[in-house]
Amino acid sequence: MTDNISHSLYALNSSQSPNLALRLLNDSPWERILQNDDDPFKLYMTTRLLQQIMTLNNTNEATAQQELCRARQLWISQLVETITTHPRWTPVTTLYLDLCHIIIKDYRKHIDDMDDDDNNDKNHVGYTLLLTWLYNENVFGWIQYVLKTRQGIDLVPVVILLMDISKACKMLMERSDKNDVAQEGWIWISRHLNQICVLWLDPHVTVARRSLALVGMILRYYRNLEMIQTVLSFFVIYTKELHQRFTREQLYALFDSERTEFFYSTIDDQTYEEDERDVVDISSDDTGDKDEALSHQLQELVDYSILYQETENILEILFELHGNNDEDAVNLQLDMLSMYEKLNNNFEHNKAQSSMTVRIKHILDKIGIGPNQLFLFFCRRTGMDHSLLIDLLLSNETEFLLFFVRYLKYVERYPQDFTRECNLLGDDQEEVVDMLRSVMLAKIINILEK
């Protein structure tokens, strides 16, 4: 088999034969091949062949495809058993986890096409793999052990697997016949929340970034007050660790264009909106006896931010991190405006939760990143030149028109907040304030009215 991997892969790709895939799956000593072969190219081709076997779907040969499906389900169940009953980490463990990633990713691609027909799910090995990870009795202890004892690159496939399961659960939530599986998935993942938060400080950047994203997904789709409090507690630790370890030189190195390219890549705008809701929805949870504990965590963030700003200007850093890019700067303001709008709406219509809403607004105001503060700083960065803002209004490259119309309505509704922030610019900047009030905004509003 090891001498004919390339030939087998080519033959399977060409024929798309379930019978050939079944024969290769059953007759090949996969574990021995993967463990004993030191040729990286051959290992790569072997895993490619396994991936092809696991994702092949030939509806023209229904009977053979059914046999292949049953064989794959048995094989994948044994695979998870093999992984979770052998705590010693080997290169084969990484290869197996990569295979799990490919299988679940392929399943996600087909979830929407399966409608509510349970047989379609059962026939896909990705669904079997998902259920095996969720319900195998060895899995929880194995993941806890790995998250505690491994670090760096070894954790990358584990965190990616958790992300894959989270994404699959998110998609299954939209199907009435699979909502219970999705809920079980979120419960299963949330049991690892503490360990996942610890990974924020992992030395490997992929582990750190993916673990942050994973916590965001957990809170978005399955959260309670205790989980929010846990995340805030770790966030306080995280920010303090960054402050101790992150030098000023490292911070400003992030402002280089090659370090901020990820800001300009295409992303799903829904991500911003969901993140806003995650933060704001803290105020709408039933706080009960946990109110003071949660408030304490929030206050720690305020105190730390104030201490940090003794040496750094948070607005300068925010706009620098956005690479002085107009689109990103506008999106930042739009996100914060949306958050304040929802906070104010919650305060006015849900008096029972008004205390927590006020505290969250107080935190954001103390940090200095409210809508008025961001907009005034943005104006100062543009030199109070109304023509630049008019160019942004007319451009289709940013959401400035959407933001500005909403912002004017916000100022109209809460004029005292806008006036207060203008006055806070100080007596020595009266000329700037007058220009903002009488010239800049007036001309822009005239353009909008026309």
Automatic annotation (TrEMBL):
All copies of domain Protein Lines N-terminal, residue ranges: 308-422
Coiled coil: none
Full protein name: Protein Lines N-terminal domain-containing protein
Source organism of this protein record: Circinella minor
Membrane-crossing segments per the record: none
Family matches, as PANTHER family: PROTEIN LINES HOMOLOG 1 (PTHR16057:SF1), WINS1, 2 PROTEIN (PTHR16057)
InterPro entries assigned to the protein according to its UniProt record, in alphabetical order: LINES_N (IPR032794), Protein_Lines (IPR024875)
Lineage: Eukaryota, Fungi, Fungi incertae sedis, Mucoromycota, Mucoromycotina
